[in-house]
Amino acid sequence: MTGHHSRAYFLAREGLDEAGVDTAREALAAYGHAIRLRPDYAEAYNNRGNVRSNLGQFEEAIADYDRAIRLRPELVDAYINRSHAKAALEQYEGALEDLGSAFSLAPDSLFAYLNRGLLMAELGRYEDAIADLDRAIGLEPAFVKTYYIRGCVRATLKRGQEAIADFERVIGLDPECAEAYNSRGMELAESGQYEAAAADYGQAIRLKPEFAAAYNNRGIAQAKLGRHGSAIEDFDEAIRLGPERPEPYYNRGYSRDRRGEYDEAIADYDQAILRKPDDIEAIRNRAIVKAQLGRTAEARGDFDTALEIAAIGR
After folding, report:
1. Would you state the pLDDT for residue 313?
2. Considering the domain boundaries, does residue 310 fall inside one?
């Protein structure tokens, strides 16, 4: 089985929940009031930009950071924050320029190195990312986020043991970090340590009960161990928490296939393909199940589609 894991992104730009949005709106109103009282209040523009960035309003955030920088050209945080907003809009050259300005003002800025490391990772320049993250750790050895991001970069480079060491450092500094357990679990699973991986996913779920990715990943570990009933329960929960994601449908389809639940498996592969139409493995697996049910023409059509997608990707 090739399980479809749910991984973290290097640049986490997750939407706020309803309570967070309400709080952000209150903050916008407060900063707006402060700016009306003091139109030259650079920090208020910078802080309002941060709120807008958290809301995904990156263009508006950049406008606020622009204003803050015009008022206080030496405000390092505004350059760093503007670089993050520009990166979110894939304005990578501008983001790097802003970080360069931050370094010229504060050569030992932890957050300048951290944000440039994030940007290098997003651009696929992983060794450069690690160099920046190493420097950030040298500046602040107890800053948890830096170890986590470096662990993600090392995982991408298939440096499993180094990644595990970083995630373990995160857990040592912050035992309540559910993401670190989930990420360590994925690295353990990569090396075939499925029981240990399942334990890590379980701990992630205990710390963060709405953690859809951890349920999906634990389901994969359970399936690898032949516990398809338990795996299906995990995939059910992952789907309940994140019905838009294709991975748990694909994975549940596989486990249902293993249990001889062929019609249900096809229905799951249908849902996975609906959400990710170029998923060759899902299309191929659906073809195999259809062939087992004697639906030969449909199976042949799926195999042909998989071959066409593979040809396009060459």
Report:
1. 74
2. yes
